[in-house]
Design goal:
globular, alpha/beta, 24 strands, 24 helices, disordered N terminus, eight-stranded mixed beta sheet, about 700 residues
């Protein structure tokens, strides 16, 4: 089928050959008893053991599990792209009658990228920063189909249009850094699909993206799969994504398939204890804030240690001696196609009595709603962005534009919004790491944004930040003990022995053993590093903590542990917190009040119950509508489309109007004022709840 016919079939133009998917009985990929090992010196890791999967034309198979479960390595094995030291030790990969295991490298290169393609997890590192977008998208068809540069460029431009890149002819000459995260991910999809492969492996294609861009990318993949008749393997750790987008699902743990089956059957009658625990660990928009999140104790096993029995046994409350001695086989349930490997299977979602949060200690500070501890008054931050050409004027990035709110003692204020809306810039100003262009940050009656010298240092001890990327925030050359002692040394607190003792206390507070003091950050897991980042932020007993995307990069099981920890410490210490995130369920669970930011402005704020139960601004409604697995409860027409405008030249009037389904002429002419809907709920919109 010619590429032009495919494009015509998608767009509805021309006399295209039908692109409807073939019946699901046609297998395109069969993996049997696949095992992989990776040798690193004397250490041998077995990331995949006895993996089975079947993929039919036109369907999406979801593979889900924690980091280290073998999801990505299974995809790399199928692609013939195992890392150095990796090899397939047993099993079969049958692609349309061709056995890929042991296939000569030259023949594999003819299949890779042509018949089987992969959308990699991190578009920024996967795209070549020194080459133009058009050349990178055109490269596969030049290699596999021998097209000329001009023909390949035309194909690439058509493909960019197909995946929704605006003005594709102009984007052809752009470099990756000139595109947003969502646009780069669309380019990755275009590269994967340009040769019309039969199978696409999408490895965490939306992990680092906002909920709105995530929804667009997943909908795009769904539409292209259905129209072009492809089969897709969707690798993710997000069960909400699986629920909405996968026809069948395989749950992996410790390199093995723990459970597999049609998505509705697996969610309705969960059989493996690990699947049950994963589903129970997901915070939802309706989560009871008075109860702890369910979390899986312990951590995934070290796959270089080859124990017998079920790999999940050390973390499973139902484990028996048999579980620790014998590996359970994959057996089929009464429902066709639903199989699990568990000696003591569950029978549906987890049933438990919620663990209620402890009452706030009397010494922990005032209850939310008291006098403000932190005030943000008309805060603005603009950055110079160079001039507009040789004769143009100077340009500025309007990162934060007139934001005001208050945080009481013991209260948590949540900030939500897409990347680029100014949340992190605002967070840095709150802890005096950045100075506002105008406006004030007032902490306990002192305008810290105007303070300098020693007095600023004293206030900074009480204003601490938990950064988004714990790997980058922790010095890789320092041991954990030195990292935790550093705040005390800077502020001249205690002797070295007292600092070490305090560091041990901090480790105990965040649930880590004292042996961690002698380790380096790279020797810890992502969840452990995030706990260290929290411990360091709490070292000087601050009264205000700003947490910037504190769990965005963590697995769902580790995420629930960290969120429970943050809630517990916040209540025990009476902390005032500002939690920044694009994960609406996380903000809903942690926050007493919520503010919604869009392009530097606060467009809605109120109590968490009001904002989530009765969102007033079209942007808030759109954010909630995009939440995988839960947004379906909202009107589908509310979904947000398009890219965030540039903060250098924001739209006139209401900044959201270019993406708003309710926009009228007044939205372009008049900036909406913030008005109260209730005493605790306000919105800046001309049309919210019967406005103009």
């Amino acid at each position: 089928m010619a590429f032009e016919s495919s494009v015509s079939g998608v767009s509805g133009a021309g006399n295209a050959v039908s692109t409807a998917p073939a019946p699901a009985t046609e297998r395109v990929l069969t993996v049997r008893d696949l095992s992989v090992e990776i040798r690193r010196g004397d250490r041998v890791v077995r990331p995949v053991s006895g993996m089975d999967l079947v993929l039919h034309r036109g369907e999406t198979l979801g593979i889900v599990g924690e980091t280290g479960s073998g999801k990505s390595m299974t995809g790399l094995a199928i692609m013939g792209m195992l890392p150095s030291g990796g090899r397939i030790t047993s099993g079969s990969i049958d692609f349309g009658g061709t056995e890929l295991v042991g296939l000569p490298a030259a023949r594999y290169r003819g299949i890779r990228g042509n018949d089987i393609a992969m959308v990699f997890q991190d578009s920024l590192t996967s795209l070549n920063p020194t080459r133009r977008i058009g050349d990178q998208v055109a490269e596969p068809v030049r290699l596999h189909e021998g097209l000329s540069r001009r023909e390949a460029g035309k194909r690439a431009e058509e493909m960019l249009a197909l995946v929704g890149i605006p003005r594709p002819a102009e984007r052809m000459d752009d470099y990756p850094h000139q595109l947003s995260g969502g646009m780069r991910q669309r380019v990755m999809i275009a590269m994967a699909l340009v040769c019309q492969p039969q199978v696409v492996i999408a490895d965490e294609p939306t992990t680092a993206l906002d909920v709105t861009i995530q929804a667009e990318i997943l909908d795009l993949l769904d539409g292209l799969r259905a129209r072009l008749g492809m089969a897709m393997i969707l690798v993710t750790h997000d069960m909400g994504v699986i629920a909405r987008h996968a026809d069948r699902v395989g749950v992996m743990y410790a390199g093995r398939l723990a459970e597999t089956g049609p998505t509705p059957a697996l969610f309705e009658r969960t059989r493996h204890r690990y699947t049950q625990a994963l589903l129970a660990s997901i915070p939802s928009l309706t989560q009871d804030r008075g109860a702890e999140l369910y979390s899986i104790g312990g951590a995934p096993p070290d796959l270089s240690v080859h124990d017998v029995g079920c790999g999940f046994a050390p973390r499973c409350a139902a484990a028996s001696d048999r579980c620790r001695a014998e590996q359970p086989p994959l057996v089929e349930d009464e429902r066709p196609g639903h199989a699990f490997a568990c000696w003591h299977p569950a029978d549906g979602p987890v049933e438990r009595t919620p663990v209620r949060l402890a009452e706030r200690p009397a010494s922990a500070g005032a209850e939310p709603g008291g006098a403000p501890r932190l005030q943000v008054l008309d805060l603005r931050r603009e950055y110079p962005a160079g001039s507009d050409g040789w004769f143009g004027g100077r340009r500025t990035v309007k990162a934060v534009s007139g934001v005001s709110f208050e945080v009481a003692a013991g209260e948590t204020f949540g900030l939500v919004g897409e990347s680029g809306c100014g949340k992190s810039t605002l967070g840095r100003m709150l802890v005096a790491l950045d100075r506002p262009t105008s406006g004030e940050v007032v902490f306990e009656g002192v305008a810290v944004s105007a303070v300098r010298g020693r007095e600023l240092g004293e206030h900074r001890a009480q204003l601490q930040m938990m950064f988004q990327d714990s790997s980058a925030a922790l010095d890789p050359r320092m041991r954990i003990g030195a990292i935790l002692r550093e705040p005390f040394a800077i502020h001249g607190v205690g002797t070295r022995a007292e600092r070490t003792s305090r560091a041990r206390d901090l480790l105990d507070d965040v649930g880590l053993p004292g042996t961690v003091l002698e380790r380096f950050p790279h020797e810890l897991s992502g969840g452990q590093r995030q706990r260290i980042a929290l411990a360091r932020a709490l070292a000087l007993d601050p009264t205000v903590l700003v947490a910037d995307e504190p769990v965005s990069a963590l697995d769902v099981s580790i995420r629930s542990q960290v969120l429970n920890l943050m809630r517990r410490l916040q209540r025990e210490r009476g902390l005032s917190s500002v939690v920044i995130s694009h994960d609406l369920a996380v903000v809903r669970y942690l926050s007493d009040r919520v503010g919604v930011m869009y392009l530097g402005k606060l467009v809605e704020s109120g109590s968490a119950e009001e904002v989530y139960a009765a969102p007033a601004h079209p942007y808030t409604i759109g954010l909630l509508a995009a939440v995988p697995g839960e947004g379906a409860s909202h009107d589908g027409t509310s979904r947000i489309h398009g890219e965030l405008p540039s903060p250098i030249d924001p739209p006139s009037g209401c900044r959201f109007r270019t993406r708003c389904p309710l926009a009228t002429e007044i939205c372009a002419e008049v900036e909406p004022e913030t008005r109260a809907l209730t005493p605790t709920h306000s919105v800046a919109c001309h049309h919210a709840n019967g406005g103009v």
